[in-house]
Design goal:
membrane, mainly alpha, 172 residues, transmembrane helix, transmembrane
C-alpha cells in the first residue's frame, strides 16, 4: 500500500500541464496586484511569485516541488479570494473587493486545475513512465499552453495592467 514515494517522477505531459496552468495563474495574480491596496498587493505578489517559481521548477525537474502539499497549496489563492469576497460583502464601504471578477475566476480555475490534477496523480499512487517520448511532451506542452492562453490572455486584458496597456499605450 505504498503511495507515490518521495522520488517518484510525474509524467512529462502532466508536468507540462501543471507548469503551464500555474504560469497562467501566476501571471494573472501578478497583473491583478497593481490594482490592489498595499497589503493585498503584497499578498498577490507573493502568490504570483510562488506560482511562477513553482512553474519553472516543475518544468525543470522530474518531480514537481512540494508535490504532496500541492493540492492544499494550490487552493490558497482561492481561499484568499473567498475571504476577500466575504470581507467585501460585509464591509460597509464595499471597497475591499475591488478585483475584476473574470481574471480572479480564471486564476482560481487554473489553481483548481493544478490542485485536482495533482490530487489525481497522488491518488493513483504509482510512478509515471518517463520514456513516453519527446513528441508526446511537446504535444502536451503545446495543447496545455494553447488552452491556458485561451483563458489567460482575455482575462489579462481585463486587469488594470491590461487596460492600461491598451488605453495608455504601454507595451507590456
Amino acid at each position: 500500500m505504498s503511495r507515490m514515494s518521495g522520488t517518484a517522477p510525474v509524467a512529462p505531459a502532466t508536468r507540462a500541464f501543471l507548469a503551464v496552468a500555474a504560469l497562467g495563474a501566476g501571471l494573472l495574480h501578478a497583473a491583478l496586484a497593481p490594482g490592489a491596496p498595499p497589503v493585498l498587493l503584497a499578498v498577490l505578489l507573493a502568490i504570483a511569485a510562488a506560482e511562477l517559481g513553482w512553474a519553472a521548477a516543475t518544468l525543470a525537474r522530474d518531480r514537481p516541488p512540494l508535490l504532496r502539499l500541492l493540492p492544499a497549496l494550490a487552493l490558497v489563492p482561492l481561499g484568499v479570494w473567498a475571504a476577500l469576497a466575504v470581507a467585501g460583502a460585509v464591509a460597509s464601504s464595499g471597497s475591499v473587493l475591488a478585483f475584476p471578477f473574470l481574471p480572479m475566476a480564471v486564476a482560481s480555475l487554473l489553481d483548481l486545475a493544478v490542485a485536482v490534477v495533482t490530487a489525481v496523480v497522488l491518488r493513483r499512487g504509482r510512478a509515471a513512465r518517463q520514456d513516453t517520448g519527446a513528441l508526446r511532451f511537446v504535444i502536451a506542452l503545446a495543447l496545455s499552453a494553447a488552452a491556458v492562453c485561451g483563458l489567460t490572455i482575455p482575462a489579462l486584458g481585463l486587469t488594470d495592467a491590461g487596460i492600461a496597456a491598451v488605453e495608455v499605450g504601454h507595451h507590456h
